[in-house]
């Protein structure tokens, strides 16, 4: 009887985690739709194993000026997007230069992935076409 209860508890926890993950994905999709109203949207993701993960949503106009930036950072499914006010009004070229100056490198000399740089590069590709 003890093993049956433990299996039920494990499946119950997996189900609850699935519900929370569903809610977070729903929030992510809603935020992307909201950001598309401001302009073109670039998305940058850095998955974290031991460190918190990051997702950056960057909305720019056709001239490459940042209209709005939102960041989700955290370990758990309770993380939500928060606006990054400091980046509003900054040009993508200027922002890219700042990011490239502040890149962090691992012991092998390889640059660690930066979600903001990913978002900028994705937007540059879309603006170029």
Question: What would you say this structure looks like, in words?
Answer:
This is Transcriptional regulator GutM. InterPro entries: Glucitol_operon_activator. Pfam families: GutM (PF06923). The protein contains three helices and four strands, in the order αββββαα. Helix 2 (92-101) packs antiparallel against helix 3. A four-stranded antiparallel beta sheet has the order 1-2-3-4. Helix content is 46%, strand content 21%. A hairpin with a 6-residue loop joins strand 1 and strand 2 (53-60). The chain is of the alpha+beta class and 129 residues long. The model has no long low-confidence stretch (mean pLDDT 88). The longest helix is centred in the N-terminal third of the chain and has 35 residues, at 2-36.
Number of strands: 4
Largest sheet: 4 strands, antiparallel
Strand order of the largest sheet: 1-2-3-4
Mean pLDDT: 88
Pfam families: GutM
Protein name: Transcriptional regulator GutM
Organism: Sinanaerobacter chloroacetimidivorans
Which features does this protein show?
single chain; 129 residues; alpha+beta; four-stranded antiparallel beta sheet; Glucitol_operon_activator; Transcriptional regulator GutM
Structure described in brief:
The protein is α+β, with helices and mostly antiparallel strands and 129 residues long.
Topology:
Layout: H1 2-36, E1 40-46, E2 53-60, E3 66-74, E4 81-83, H2 92-101, H3 115-128
Antiparallel strand pairs: 1-2, 2-3, 3-4
Helix pairs in contact: 2-3
